[in-house]
Each structure stands twice: as C-alpha cells, then as structure tokens.
Amino acid sequence: MTTPEPPKAPWKDLLNDHLCQNSSSEFTLATVAYDATKKRHVPRARVCGFRGFFPNPQLHPSAVDALKTQGDGLNPDVYESDMLSFTTDVRMEKVGQIQPGSSESDAGSEVEMVFWLKDAGSQWRIKGDAFVIGDQDGGSEEDEAREEIQRGLRVCSEDGRGRWTWERQVTTYFANHTPILRGSFKSPSPGRAKSQDPQDPSLKPGQKVEDLHDSAARKNFRVVVVRPEEVERLDLSDYKNPARWTWTLVEDGKQPGRWEEVELWP
Ligand SMILES: Cc1cc2nc3c(=O)[nH]c(=O)nc-3n(C[C@H](O)[C@H](O)[C@H](O)COP(=O)(O)O)c2cc1C
Question: Which domain of life is it from (predicted)?
Fold first, then answer.
C-alpha cells in the first residue's frame, strides 16, 4: 500500500509571494543542542540562506549550463512540496545537532526557521523536522533522511518519474552555487582554530570549484530539508492593525494530515 500524499499547505503560496517580494531570503535557524556536560539542552541559532521549496530551487542559468555540459542533466519535474531547503557543510555544528546519533552534541531533528520579510511586513516562523542529505557514501542515515523527505513530496507529473534521482538532486543544489562558494566546501574546517593547520592538503581557503563532482567539496556538501508541522505568520504591514495566524498540521489517523488554520490575537 502506498502512503497517501500530504495535502498542499494553505500558507505556501503566500510565503512564496512574500519571499519573492522581499529583497533577501535569509532566515534564522534555531536548533537544539546539548551543552558540554550532555545534561542540559541549549538553543543554538544562526543565519542561513533559503534555497527554495524542495526539490525545486530557483536555478541560475549557469547552474543549468554546468549540469548539462558536465553530463548530469536535470531531474524531470515530477515532485513538489511544502518543505523548505538550504545547503550547508557537514562539518558545521548544526548538522550534528540535527542528525540524531551523529555527534556528541546531537539533540534531535526539531528546528525552527524565522524569516523577517521586511518588504512584506511579515514575520514567518516555521517549526518542523530537518533532514540532511548528500552523503555520497550513502548508508542508513542517508536512506532514512531520504525516506522522511519522500513522505513530504507530492507527485506533480508521472512523466519521467523513473529517471528522477536523489544524487542528481543534490548535484543540482551544488551546481546552483558559484564556483567560489562551491570551493568553500573544501576550505579548512569551519569553526576550527586557525592555529591548527588542516592535515588534508586539499583543504585550502579561496578555491574555485568548477567540477560538480569535486570529491573533496562534495564530501562536505549537504542539503537540509525542513518538513514543516506548524507555521505562523505575524503581519505587521499595518502597525495599527497587526494580525497573526497559525497553521498546524493535524495527523488524521491513516489519512494524510490536514492543515488547521487559527487566527490569533497578535
Ligand atoms: C547572510 C548569511 C547567510 C548564510 N547562509 C548560510 C547557509 O545557507 N548555510 C550555512 O550552513 N551557513 C550559512 N551562513 C553561516 C551561518 O550563519 C553560520 O555561521 C555557520 O553555518 C556555522 O554555524 P553552525 O556552526 O552553528 O552550524 C550564513 C551566514 C550569513 C551571515
């Protein structure tokens, strides 16, 4: 029996419009970590750049060009979702915090993303689970993350479904970075003391990477996908008349979940 597809989220088009209207699309990502004693949970937050609703990042023409000339090609347009994506370096702390069991400081996949989209006058808070993909060696963690993401996908066309691959999707996200940003994935370990020389001679700052399968850079490159469970919009576009809504994904037994909208006092 196949799992039912999730319903389209009622907030998605509005958030997307606000992101398109806004001059920037960075957000604050909050994760939960353990402190050094492993006894206390502590919050951790940092700014990241939104990379579109998975699996459809807005592709730069140079990314399409690189995918075509290097023989990867593009995945057929078969899926859409309400899941938000960004990219990161596996060596950064947030990855260990999100991936259960992968590091000393892991605490769980629950995250919160906060956007202040000033041009639209709205704050958006997205609470959900984050999943990390892109480990080229595969393994159970990669498989489990893909399965969780799959649960949030909707099929928009059967045409070419058999040709769609996870590997090409991660490569597409990698291609959508400039060569210098691709090179940042083979810089010395982020967050390590500069006084400690990297052991690996391939790790140097400021490298440009044209090859979409550069092994040192791809070893560290990851795509993070957030599957929302609760979304809140605070509308401050008219300060005399603020407004606030939440949408909560309510699981309905075996049925696909449904989004429940509630207007709140701001
Ligand atoms: C404007 C801006 C955009 C950023 N975009 C990202 C991003 O997309 N992904 C990322 O991992 N870090 C990004 N960073 C860096 C993070 O804020 C942070 O310094 C880094 O990820 C290390 O955080 P961590 O050790 O808590 O994982 C960005 C920083 C700024 C200021």
Answer: Eukaryota
